[in-house]
Each structure stands twice: as structure tokens, then as C-alpha cells.
Amino acid sequence: MVKYASNAMLACKISFINEIANLCERYGADINNVREGMCADRRIGNQFLYPGLGYGGSCFPKDTLAVVGMGKEVGFDCKLNASVHEVNQDQRGHFWQKIEKEFVGGLSGKKLAFWGVAFKPRTDDIRQAPSIALMERAIKAGARVRAFDPVALEHLSREMTSVEIATDMYQCLEGADALVVCTEWSDFRSPDWDRVKDLLSAPLIFDGRNLYRAHSMQEHGFDYVSIGRATVRGAAKSRS
Q: What is the pTM for the complete model shown?
């Protein structure tokens, strides 16, 4: 019970901050500022309060649903934990809608580069990783997908044979119509932006982990879509 409760609580924090981030988008607020204010309160702290694509792996999804299942066994409706899971699953769809919105003519024939496959950094675990859900949607929409991850590519090649495996983070970008960042690996935090821009066929980045400063991306000349923050336009170029 302690393990289930602990993991369910951490999952709750992730879903909570993602829900607030989605609300920020609709009100024109910046989730980074909201998070900073929240985390200044010692009662709340700053752990597991990072907006993103939601949790994955083998523990949080399983343990959150285990709590829901335990409740059902004794006739108790664990509404909060059920909602935590629902919000987490919806987060992938919410981010996917952002991608679709940028490609007004559809994604068929487009090339998407994915940085990060593992559900979190410093692991090769891709179980229930948000990246997998997004790549599956991209392929279903007719896009070509190429991916790079520092350690998880072997698992990906077995899981999704239709995904092209990149040899490094920059080769992943060659000719791509957009970059999608799914895992906050340290390798991706400070790339050579001039090189990134030269390799992409269009300067468009979808940041599912809010790794970069929005104004900096605009100055580099990218259209930059993140979570809980306004989209910035540095490219001034429409896509069809």
C-alpha cells in the first residue's frame, strides 16, 4: 500500500502541473512563472512539478491504476487516481493536436524528427513512453518518422520497425519538417542551433519537455511550440 500510495502521489503531481499548464495556455499565462510561484511555497516543494508529456514507464501507470483497481474490489471509487491517469493519457493527445495545428495541409508525406524515446532520461525503458504514442499517431497520419535516443534505440527498433533509426541527434534532423522533443536528455539541452536550423527543412520545433527558453528560440529564428506557454514565431513562414 505504501508503494502504491507514494507512486500515485507523484503521478498526481505530474498530472496536476500538466492540467495547470493547459489552463495557462488558454489564459495566456506562462506555466514557468506559475510553477516558480508554487514552488516557492515550502509546503508544495518543487519535485515532480515539471510540465511535459506526462509520465510513462512501468511504475506510475501501473501503480496508479492498481489503486483504482483496489478501490473497485471493495466497492470504493478512487476518483482522484482515475482522473490522474486520464489526464496523463490525454496529455499526449493535447500535444498531438499542437502538431496537427501547425500542418494545416495534413502530415501525409511530412518528415518528423524525434529527439528522445525513453520515457525519462538515464534509462532505456520505453514502456508507455509518450514518444511512442506520438510516433504512432504521426505514422498513422502518413508522416515519416526518424528518431534518436542516447540509449533506447535498440528497444525502439524492435517495438516500431517503421521508424527510421538515426545515428546521432543531428543526423536525425536531416530534411525533417519539424523536430519533436520528447525526453529531456542532457544531450539535447544545448544544441548547435545554427546546425539544427540548417539541417531542418523548416525551422519548427515542438518541445514536449519545455527544455528551451521561448524568447531565445524566437531569436534563433524558430517557430517554437511548447507546453503551458504561448507559441512564439521566429520563422514567419506558413506550412501547407
A: 0.95
